[in-house]
Amino acid sequence: MKRNIPQEILPLKALQEFTAARIGLGRVGTSIPLKQALEFKLAHAHARDAVYSELDINSLTDLLKLFGLPVLHLQSRVGYREQYLQRPDMGRRLNKESIDLLQQGYYVETDIAVIIVDGLSATAVNKNSPELLRVLIPQLTAAGFKLAPISLVEQGRVAIGDDIGHGLKAKLSLILIGERPGLSSADSLGVYLTYGPKPGLTDEARNCVSNIRPGGLSYAEATKKIFYLISEAFKRKSSGVMLKDNAGLLES
């Protein structure tokens, strides 16, 4: 027997193909149907798991070696995951061992430092950063950008890229980080770029391309946006609020 759909739900059913948001779920009495209720609980469990997931260091290191660049393993000042969640400030700075590693490197000036950070979803980084980098890094090198050693960072926040980019003497830092999991996506990757990275910068100095994943922004489209922003950042020698994504706008 076909389930009757309440009349007030019908206008929302057509919108479901355009969004992963939970709309037009229907109802049973005063509650939502059992199937949708269980799906909600499963999504919540996936989000919690993503927050406590860990970087697959070995697999990521093997992938990054294919690009012919040194790989640095770095760590924030956070000692354990609960501390990471309670003390965002400690996730924004490198610990002493990582600072010493950068200071001992005697790095020459480069254009871009690619920095991979677990953030709030290492699951997103493990799943999406390999595919994105396979498209992005060849495009950057073909355009003549000189890349610094690639950094793999555990227990990090976005701002940790300021310390790393500055320590590697890079003109621009490019941070790939797991975004805060939601109830429709626990595997969303964000990419932040900062021109002239140095300790003490705040978020108005950065540009972000977010929701990079198979169910969101595709790797090809993300690469296109990131490459455009990087090119404009070097042209203007700035990023953040001084740099807008005007790609695709019609010329007057």
From TrEMBL:
Names of required cofactors: adenosylcob(III)alamin
EC numbers: 4.3.1.7
Superkingdom to which the source organism belongs: Bacteria
Cofactor note: Binds between the large and small subunits.
InterPro entries: EutC, EutC_C, EutC_N
GO molecular function annotations of the record: cobalamin binding; ethanolamine ammonia-lyase activity
Record keywords, A-Z: Bacterial microcompartment, Cobalamin, Cobalt, Lyase
Pathway info: Amine and polyamine degradation; ethanolamine degradation
Main location: other
Gene3D superfamilies linked: Ethanolamine ammonia-lyase light chain (EutC), Ethanolamine ammonia-lyase light chain (EutC), N-terminal domain
One GO CC term, this protein: ethanolamine degradation polyhedral organelle
Reactions catalysed: ethanolamine = acetaldehyde + NH4(+)
Localization in the cell: Bacterial microcompartment
Pfam families given in the database record: EutC (PF05985)
Keyword Lyase: yes
Homology family: Belongs to the EutC family.
Protein's name in the database: Ethanolamine ammonia-lyase small subunit
Organism of derivation: Mucilaginibacter lappiensis
Gene of this entry: eutC
